[in-house]
Amino acid sequence: MTKSLPLIWLPGLLCDGTLFEDVDQCLPEWIAPECFTLDVLPTMGQLAADVLAKAPKEFVLGGLSMGGILAFEVYRQAPHRVKGLILMDTNSANEKNEVSEKRNELVSRALSGEFEQITPEVLMPLLIHSSRLEEPDLTGKIEQMAINIGLEAFQAHANALATRPDLRPFLSEISVPTIVMTGKNDLLCPIDNHLLMAQHIPDVTMHVLPNCGHLSSLEQPEAVALRLSNWLNLYQSQWL
To answer: How far is C-alpha 2 from the chain's CA centre?
Structure first.
């Protein structure tokens, strides 16, 4: 029987395992994917320590958006446990003040009773390609993920994003195979973020998905899975 290797997924803000379900179904059989639920903790350091406490001894680590940001911190805390990194639609820099201010306004609205309106009314055009905004199956999944995560986690994770360190100087220290992937039309984490990662991470593969927004694993799961599978299979003999 072929041994399996854990793949730990870390979801984005207001996202859960739904983000990766369709991708997981198309990955190689020797990969055992699992999406962690992120605890209600207000810093990246605390979130990363919690992930490591729950994770197996060794694993491939993947994250999208906030999940990718958290993946950097998990790797920084325990590089000897991470065999490979999957960084999707994400950012290695610290957060700009204007971004924090806009999100804090959303948190305030959420606390005042508008939490369930924020995703469909404010965030949706930033999360997916403009051509997909009238697809209820897709938008419904995104709205339901936000409801599943809830207000308390939204507030805590917003703080974690706002207070995160700048890890751009750390990129050159990443010594494991890494794949960087982004939607070409990602409005939240533009291509330049990913070009920077590809420039400084030593063992890196990069893919840009055309006609795709921020939530690439939901928008184009088959395209994501194909590129991930090809990359994973390159390292199967090294990792197992």
So the answer is: 28
